[in-house]
From TrEMBL:
PROSITE patterns: THIOREDOXIN_2. It comes from Comamonas avium. InterPro entries: Redoxin, Thioredoxin-like_sf, Thioredoxin_domain, Thioredoxin_ResA/DsbE_sf. CDD domains: TlpA_like_family. This is TlpA family protein disulfide reductase.
Length: 167
C-alpha cells in the first residue's frame, strides 16, 4: 500500500512540475466568496474581482515551481494590466508571513499578494493543496480555467486576450 502512495506522489509531482493543467468543465463556475488580507493590511473580496480578468495564483515560497513561474506571472501581469487584467497571489497558510513579505519585496511583485493564514481561502477555492494552482476568473467573476502546476503561458496569454475582448 505504501508503494502505491509513493508512486502516486511521484506521478503527481511529475505532472505538476511539467506544467500540467486541468480544465474544470465546459461551463464557468462562480468564484467562491472569499476575503483576502493583503500584505499592506488592506483587504479585498471576491466581489472586487468583477469587472476585470483576474489570475488568482495559490503559491508558496517553499514551492520550487511557484518560484520558477513567478517571473512569467509578473511579465503576464505587466503585459495586460492596462487592459483590464489583474493578478492576485495568495500565499498558502503554511508559508511564514515574513517569508512572503520578503519574497514580495525582494522580487518587487507588481500585484496584490494575500496571506491565507487560516487556510480558509484555499479551502473555499476547491480545497487547494497543490501549488502552484492558478485560476483564471473572467469579468463576471466566474472561474473559466484552472491550472495545477505551471501554466503554458502562451496558451494562457491567448485565453487572457480572448477574455479581455469580451464585454
Amino acid at each position: 500500500m505504501a508503494i502505491k502512495h509513493i508512486v502516486a506522489g511521484v506521478v503527481l509531482a511529475a505532472f505538476a512540475s511539467v506544467g500540467g493543467y486541468v480544465f474544470l468543465s465546459d461551463s464557468s463556475q462562480t468564484a467562491p466568496q472569499s476575503n483576502f488580507v493583503l500584505l499592506d493590511g488592506s483587504s479585498k473580496s471576491t466581489n472586487d474581482l468583477k469587472g476585470k480578468v483576474t489570475l488568482v495564483n495559490f503559491w508558496a515560497t517553499s514551492c520550487v515551481t511557484c518560484v520558477a513561474e513567478m517571473p512569467e506571472i509578473i511579465a503576464t501581469h505587466n503585459k495586460y494590466k492596462d487592459q483590464g487584467f489583474d493578478t492576485l497571489a495568495i500565499a498558502m497558510s503554511y508559508d511564514p508571513p515574513s517569508y512572503v513579505v520578503n519574497f514580495a519585496q525582494s522580487r518587487q511583485l507588481p500585484f496584490n499578494v494575500a496571506l491565507d493564514n487560516t487556510g480558509a481561502v484555499a479551502k473555499a477555492w476547491g480545497d487547494v493543496k497543490l501549488t502552484p494552482t492558478t485560476y483564471i476568473v473572467n469579468k463576471q467573476g466566474e472561474i473559466v480555467k484552472t491550472y495545477i502546476g505551471q501554466p503554458n503561458f502562451e496558451e494562457l496569454h491567448k485565453l487572457i486576450e480572448k477574455l479581455l475582448a469580451q464585454a
